[in-house]
Amino acid sequence: MGLNLDSEVLKAYGYAKENTRITQIGTGLINRTYLLSPLSEEKKYILQNINTSVFKQPQAIANNLRAIADYLNFAYPEYLFIKPVSTTNGEEMAHIRDEYWRMLPFVPNTISLDVLADPKQAYEAAKQFGKLSRLLDNFDAKTLQPTIPGFHDLGLRYEQFTLALNKIVEALKEQAKSEIEGALAHKYILDYYTSYSHRKDFPDRVMHHDTKISNVLLDDETYEGICVIDLDTVMPGKFISDLGDMMRTYLCAFSENETDLDKIKIRLPYFEAMIKGYLSEMKSILTETEKELILFSGKYIIYMQALRFLTDFLSGNNYYPTNYPTQNLDRAKNQFKLLHEISVNEKELQDIIEENLV
Questions:
Q1: Cβ partners under 8 Å of residue 358, min gap 6
Q2: What is the C-alpha to C-alpha distance for residues 191 and 155, in angstroms, rounded to an integer?
Q3: What is the pLDDT of residue 235?
């Protein structure tokens, strides 16, 4: 669709093409995102097209955000929660020609980063994700609908891996032999999680589920955390989803697309900053079981992501976009190396956690 937005989308929010300036923004792979600047107002808005191939029930997103916004408005009215702007008909989304759109207020004087450049940024981001979960501690997570069922279900991801493994030809199996062996050898992570999963003090909480640095707004001068954004995946989950995803994406200077595995190292100052930021908000509400599983959360999410990349490679690269045939295999190698780095640095990492739990 590019910048030729359907005029009906703008009309649903009371605007027309002739009185708005529209610019495509963002680096997200899921939703198309635009900055909408009405010529007659100082306010700006974010306009997003919801990818229904990923989010098959957009109404679940709208229902979740409305329920959370209502709760926070009542319990913590000072908290900045970016809830959707209503259409002229009072709806949370515009449904135009089989597409779903939503509009959000643009927060001025803020920045979202694609890459962490300083431990302070890791601290502020982790603090913001922790703050949202803390404020929603008394909100009944069971009232929310899963927007992507099974998103961080390691059991499901392992099952998908084994199904793919049973279908592939011998040549492909040989090509990925080392990574397949690694996936099987690390199944103990799933078994360990399963042994904890039914404990009463391992609750479902309201989790963001996608805690990369680009999903938090920072002050554009001080880099102080302002608020969390991109709330499509806010749904019930375990705390390890958010903290583990931060470990996966904050601790290494290079992304999962880096093929030089010697570069995949853990940055201890970033780990310490992230743990300090998250626990500054969450320490008071985490249970004893959750405290036990803080470092494990990184192993859980990194292993799950390695499995997902490997499974996609074995299945024909149908999910993650690739630039060359073995890219998902390379991504899996990258994540297994990161998992290894967690293990070899475990004592030092655990010491940092213990210091911040006091």
A1: none
A2: 9
A3: 96
